[in-house]
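User: My advisor asked me to double-check a structure prediction for Adenosine deaminase before group meeting. I don't want to rely on an old file, so could you generate it fresh from this sequence?
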Amino acid sequence: MWEKIIACDRKYDGLFYTAVKTTKIYCRPSCRSRKPKKTNVSFYLDINEVEQAGFRACKRCQPEVEHSPHIGLVRKTITFLVNHYKQQLVLQDIADHVGVSPYYLERLFKQETAETPRTYLEKIRVDKAAYLLISTDQTNLEICYEVGFQSPSNFYRVFRRLKSCSPSEYRDLDR
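Assistant: Sure, here is a fresh prediction for Adenosine deaminase from the sequence you gave:
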């Protein structure tokens, strides 16, 4: 268990808790706070057990909350992307909207979703394009610009990567 808290391994969150005797605080195994001395640490398998022992939850990793403490920021980012996918967006625009630095946003977003805000935005755009390909008679070029891509070559490349076929092939699959 000690090795897992030193590595800040997120896979063990919820399986056990680390309690520090000197501060009377308990954390998730993935907490990024400064690591205590090994002699001051106790391990608990149940959150109720650690709280009954008199420890309070860490304010940084929030072990008493079921989900990650950063889920609100990620949801706010996703909402912004869904509502503004047609616009030309750069990471700085998204970071400004959610109120954090671009580096911090990208790192947290990737940590929580396993992808960057840019790849998430590309998925939204490709999904909207796929819907338009099937439901409208617009040309591929019109759809490309409609969903927010700035160049047809990028649209075709991203579409092929995510859907394993070209936009024209995708349109033909539905017929």
